[in-house]
Structure formats: structure tokens, C-alpha cells
Amino acid sequence: MIEARQLTKRYGDKTAVDGVDFTVRPGAVTGFLGPNGAGKSTTMRMIIGLDAPTAGSVTVSGRRYAQHSAPLQEVGALLEARSIHPGRSAFDHLMALAYTHGISRGRVDEVIELTGLQSVARKRAGAFSLGMGQRLGIAAALLGDPQTVMLDEPVNGLDPEGVLWIRQLLTDLAAAGRTVFVSSHLMSEMALVADHLIIVGRGRVLADTTVQELVRSAGGDTVVVASADPAELRRALAVRASRSPAGPDPSS
Amino acid sequence: MSTATESRPTPAAPARPADPARRVTGRRVLRSEWAKLWSLRSTWITLALGLLFLLAFGTIAALRYKSMSASGQQMDPDFADATAYTLALFGVPFALIALGVLGVLTTSGEYSTGMIRSTLAAVPRRLPVLWSKAAVYGVIAFLVGAVGAVGVFLISSGVLSGTAKAMSISDDEVVRGLLGAGLYLGLVGVIGVALGALLRSTAGGISALVGAFLLVPGLMSLLPRSWRTDITPYLPSNAGESIFALQPPTGALSAGAGLLVLLGWTVLALGGAGYRLKRSDA
User: Fold this and answer.
1) Of A21, A4, A10, A5, whose CA–CA distance to A207 is shortest?
2) How far apart are CA B134 and CA A91, in angstroms?
3) Does residue A169 sit in the same domain as residue A206?
């Protein structure tokens, strides 16, 4: 459960996040949708305390992230920017994070297997492809077996296989009762994975709704057709309708 | 990537209750920083270089002295008032650069690579990371410095045995001085850690370190003489050299006072680093 209350972040006279209110609930995938520069990454950085809010607050399970005694058990985050030392192997990177919480080596092996990194775990992370780097970031996010999984643009730069893998991962995590918060600038991607949507633009929340509701309110179940020859279009539709056993859909 | 579709993610044990044994403690952060340091190749290379500089330059200085005194030629002034002890520690300023640079890298490297985001996500209280890095690296730099200093003294006193400058490790104050050299290098390492965290830049951190220890002392000659004699002994490099000098030059601090002054500089740098780490966005 993530709760943002009047969350604001200003850099000089530029306002990146402007009095944002939202709640991300467990058991569902919540999409965080908006164009580049809408304030999605800044909001996520404030959730895990990397950036301090200029005003307002954001809590995880009722407390500020830094106040938890085992923060990696609360939120596992994959940020958009790489957060890995390229000279360290995937295994050493995960072990270094695991030590801070007393997480066992067995759990490190578990997330390596879960993310399919077994064959490259001992290689330097600097040599990883974009997709492998994302997988390592996700392995780190899952390391503490967190209640909330937060991923910033996880499908960026992934091949189709990787995209499918991430979609399945998000769905499974939500089905297991976790809070899943995932950002994207692609509506098509969000429509496929998210149950709930928080749409932001220029640092403000534009909509906080479910995917079905958004599609309905946007008139997504009707089609407008324009033609240079309306008479011919009408005739073609009539022919088509007479052939179709179901008859013409009145709304199309 | 080809293994991806087969390994369908199945998050183990749905919403398993939080494991109370898993929490961040000071010891665990220390353990993590220890693991981070040794899992990078640059650590091994730079520590080896630091040790090599200490051993090689001191040995070369001793050999050079021996060949000059054997041939009976006119001594360079630098060599004329040298002792076996100062000849042995000829490499200290070079080791200082290697060990100080590695100190800078332990913190600035986290910022240049983005690793700092992972680090602070795991330890969001932040300050334990800085204290742990300083402690872990300070101890390692001290050990490398002390081992190198004792090692090179043994080598060069072997080289110089039988000459007018012969000294033994059992002579008065020698062991204290050699450990002092290690202490100096350890504190330089900690100052490097602090400068890297304060400036968040490798180039900036190294420049500040080199400036403070090598360039500022040279600038002192621009000051009026009375100011110079008042200020110079308190510079980090001069205070540090007092820690391990066996016969402090006139006007220099005593070993104890030098250590206190250098500790003061270290605390100042760490304080600045801690303030920036805690107060500004990562």
C-alpha cells in the first residue's frame, strides 16, 4: 500500500510533481501512465526516499520508507536509470544488497533463478545487454520478497520475450496479493497488464480509474468512420450487413 | 534471454509474513560495504599499487644511497641528511595518492555508476553507509600502509646495514613511527572516502585530495614568512608527516599533536560528507 498526499517536488522554479494524491492498493497491478517528463520517475524516487518531497508526504504501509527497519522487505524497486556498478558481477551485486538485511545466500540464488540469470550471474554487470540489466534490476527488486513491487518503465528496451515475461511476472505478483506499481508512457502496454490506472501529466494526476472505465469513458467501444464517398460506404456496409448472420451492430 | 519463457516467474510463497530476522543493522551494513569493496577489481589493483609504491621506492632510495656512499661521490643534499628511516619511507607520498584515490572511488564510484540508488534503497537512513565505508576502508588502508612501511624498513635497513646510516627496527621509536605512517595513510583513505561523498565526482574528489595534500603545501611559499610558519604545520600533509617523523623538523608539530590535527581534518571532511549525504537528493 502506497499513499501519496499532496506530494510535491520542485527543482528551482520547475515543478516536477505538483500536489499529487493517490493510493496504490495490494492485490492489483496499478499502472502509472503519462508522457516522458510527467513526473513518474520523480514520484517513484520520492517513494523510496531517494528524493525528499518539497511538500506533502508519501508513505509505504503507513510509514515513510526510511522509517522501516527492513526497507527491502517493504518495497522492491526497479528504477529507470541503471543502479548497478558495472564492475561487479550480478551475484556480488545481489549479495552486497542482501548483506544489509541479513538475507541469505539461498534467497540470492532463488532470485537469480527466478529472473533467468543463472548463466551470467558471475559475469560483470557492465557487459550485460539492456534486457539482462533489467532482469538484474528486477532480481534486486524481488530480493527482499517485498510487499510492494515498484517498477519504472520495466519493458523499455526489452525484446518481445522479455516483455511477455514481465507481464506475466506483474500479473503473478498481484495474484499473490502484492502491491504492484508499474510506470509506462505506453497506453497499449498498460491496457494489457494494469487493473487500475493513475494517469499523470505535467506533475498532476489527470485520472485515477480502472482500465475498463477509462476505455468506456473515452468512447472506446464505438468507431467513427470518415469516407470521401458516403454513398458507396453506405452501400458496402449494407451488403456486408446482409451477409452477416448477426446483422449490423447498431452502434458501429 | 532464451531461457526466459521457460522460467515463468512464480513469486515464492504468496505474501509470506515479513521475516523478523531480516532488518538493517550497523554490522550488516559494514558487512555489505566490506563485500562491495572486495568484489571490485580496482580495489585489488589499487591496493597492490599502493603497497608496491611503498616497497619499491623505499628500496630504490636505499640502494641509490648505498651506491653513492660506496663510490664516495658528493651526496645530493636530499640524501646527505637522510636516515635509513626516511629513505625507507620515500614512497609514502606516492602510496598516499594510490590509497587516497581508492578511498575517493569507494564513494564517488557509487554516484558515477548509479549504484548509490541501490545502496540507499537498501539503507535509506543513509549515514550508516558513510560510516561503514569510512571504517572498512580506513582499516584496510591502515593495514596496507603499516605492513608496507614495516616491510620496506626491513628491506632498506638490510640494504644499508654496514653503512653509516644503518638502523634497526628495534631502535627507539622506529616501530611507533612506522605504525604512524600506516595511521597517516589510513586517515588519508578516510579523507578520500569523505571527499568522494562530498563532491560526488571522481575527478573532483581526486583533485581535492591531490590539491590538499600535494599542491597547497607548495602554495605556502607565497605567504608572508610569519603566516607561513604559523599555518604550515597544521596543513593535512604536514600534520600527517609529523605523525611518523622520528626527528620532527623545527616548527613541526609533535607526533601526538599532528595526529590530533589530522583527525580534526578527517572529522571535518566526514562531517561535510555526512551533511550532504543526508540533506541532498541522491
Assistant:
1) A21
2) 24
3) yes
Assembly ipTM: 0.88
Give which of B40, B46, B110, B113 to mutate to test A binding, by max A Cβ within 10 Å.
Answer: B113
From A69, A88, A116, residue closest to B24, measured CB to CB: A69
> Do A124 and A215 share a domain, yes or no?
yes
Instruction: Say if residue A62 is in the same domain as residue A170.
Output: yes
Whether A147 and A252 map to the same domain: the answer is: no
The residue ranges of every structural domain in chain B are 27-279
Say whether both A139 and A86 belong to one domain: yes
A228 and A161 share one domain: no
All residues of chain A having their beta carbon less than 8 Å from the beta carbon of residue B37 are none
Query: In this complex, do A93 and B7 lie within 8 Å of one another by their Cβ atoms?
Result: no
Name the nearest CA neighbour of B16 among A24, A147, A141, A121: A147
How far is it, in rounded angstroms, from Cα A214 to Cα A51? 31
Give the structural domain span for A182.
Answer: 2-221
Domains held by chain A: number: 2
Average confidence (pLDDT) over A124-146? 94
Residue A248 Cα distances to A120, A234, A237, angstroms: 56, 12, 8
- Contact call for A140 and B5, based on CB within 8 A: no
- Is residue A136 a contact partner of residue A90, using CB atoms and an 8 Å limit? yes
The per-residue pLDDT for range B107-160, each reduced to its tens digit, is 999 999 999 999 999 999 999 999 999 999 999 999 999 999 999 999 999 999
Compute the nearest-CA separation of A248 from chain B (Å). 41
Task: Specify the pLDDT at position B17.
Answer: 53
Nearest CA in chain A to B127: A66
Residue A215 sits in a domain whose CATH number is 3.40.50.300
Helix, strand, coil tally for chain B in percent (to 5): 75, 0, 25
Q: A92 with A73, same domain?
A: yes
**Are the beta carbons of A114 and B7 separated by less than 8 Å?**
yes
CB neighbour list of residue B236: distance below 8 Å, 6 or more residues apart:
B191, B212, B213, B261, B262, B265
| Beta-carbon separation of B120 and A93 below 8 A | no
Interchain CB distance below 8 Å, A97 and B122: yes
Are A208 and A235 in the same domain? Answer: no
Bridge partners of B110, per DSSP, are: none
